[in-house]
Design goal:
- Strands 8-7-4-9-10 form a 5-stranded mixed sheet, with helices on both faces. It has a 3-stranded antiparallel sheet with strand order 1-2-3, with no helix packed on it.
- By secondary structure, it is an alpha+beta fold.
- The protein starts with 13 loop residues before the first helix and ends in a 10-residue tail after the last helix.
- The relative contact order is 0.14.
- It has 2 domains: 5-122, no CATH class; 136-291, Nucleotidyltransferase, domain 5 (2-Layer Sandwich), CATH 3.30.420.10.
- The protein is built from 10 helices and 12 strands.
- It has helices at 14-25, 78-90, 97-104, 108-122, 189-199, 213-218, 246-263, 271-283, 292-301, 310-313; strands at 41-43, 54-56, 62-63, 136-144, 149-152, 156-159, 167-174, 179-184, 205-208, 223-226, 235-238, 241-244.
- Helices cover 34% and strands 17% of the residues.
């Protein structure tokens, strides 16, 4: 019988959890977050000392591996943090805050904040442009959120048609690699051009639908092909090349199934973090040789240099978390 990932000692024992995180965050030696000195510190072993506390011999300040990461100032045990990371990394369509609240035994407010901190650790938006020579990048846009209502004389309140007041997302996907999604305020030529050129290597082959704003953008790339969805064209073959945007459409399918079935509601302020979560799992998927354990380890490594306080995550006027 296969061994459960939750049998790992790091997910059940606090000291082992700290040791695991330290090995991922400090692979070349213990780094003091205050002065940056490497391997000039010692573990404090007093009876009342917390697990994982070290003292730097250079600046004389105490520190733990939590400082300067998503774990800083958290009273949640480290092994519970690792359990939450494993569950979020292993769930293809995500896991709700309510589910984390029940499984981990923490409050709903804590589970909601933990999930947002983990999404921040998953954010790989600064990892360089997608694609490159010999690679194909597909680009498309989608819409998410509740459509507003309008009052029509004689008919009462009716739901609006179209996507005018929905949240707008542009996603770039390497044909055999990573995904990156960007929330935008509008879908005009200037906005889309900026998103594509900022996030895709122009040595790539670009594939899009028939939207007019891609025509000039495509001239900047090694090649540009498009499919005409309005004419029910979704795939065609030219010179042995498959011209389609089905890869990015498949990404949207996973994203929307997760948002509808798991999270159900997403405030516009937080959409970018949910996008980062789905991008991360897609970019580190099993088809690329990344298993659940490796994916969780990558999220722990991504926790460095990222802080997110509850106050900045949720304003005083925001409603209570529901997902």
């Amino acid at each position: 019988m296969p061994k459960s990932v939750f049998d790992s000692r790091a997910l059940r024992n606090e000291k082992a959890a700290y040791a695991y995180v330290e090995a991922k965050i400090w692979p070349t030696g213990r780094v003091c977050p205050h002065c940056g000195v490497v391997d000039r510190s010692g573990e404090l072993k007093g009876k009342s000392t917390r697990i994982g506390v070290y003292k730097c011999y250079a600046c004389r300040k105490p520190f733990t591996v939590k400082v300067g990461t998503i774990f800083e100032d958290s009273h949640v045990p480290m092994h519970l943090w690792l359990q939450a990371i494993v569950m979020m990394c292993a769930s293809k369509k995500g896991i709700s805050s309510n589910q984390l609240h029940r499984v981990l035994g923490v409050t709903l407010r804590t589970a909601w904040h933990m999930s947002h901190r983990i999404r921040l650790a998953m954010d790989e938006s600064g990892s360089g442009p997608l694609g490159g020579g010999g690679e194909t990048v597909e680009v498309d846009e989608t819409f998410w959120g509740q459509q507003g209502s309008i009052f029509i004389n004689g008919k009462g309140w009716q739901q609006k048609r179209g996507w005018g007041d929905k949240m707008k997302v542009v996603t770039l996907v390497e044909r055999k690699g990573r995904a990156r999604s960007i929330k935008v305020d509008d879908l005009n030529a200037a906005t889309v051009r900026g998103v594509v050129l900022d996030n895709a290597d122009t040595k790539s082959a670009l594939m899009t639908d028939e939207a007019r704003y891609y025509r000039n953008i495509g001239k900047r790339f090694a090649s540009h092909d498009s499919v005409n969805h309005s004419a029910d064209e979704y795939v065609r073959t030219e010179d042995g090349r498959k011209i389609t945007t089905n890869t990015v459409e498949g990404f949207f399918s996973i994203f929307k199934r997760g948002m509808v079935g798991i999270y159900q509601h997403c405030d516009e302020r937080h959409l970018r973090r949910y996008l980062a979560e789905f991008d991360f799992r897609y970019s580190n998927r099993a088809a690329l040789g990344v298993n659940d354990t490796d994916r969780a380890a990558q999220a722990v490594i991504g926790a460095v240099g990222k802080r997110l306080t509850y106050r900045t995550t949720r304003s005083k006027t925001a409603k209570a978390p529901s997902a």
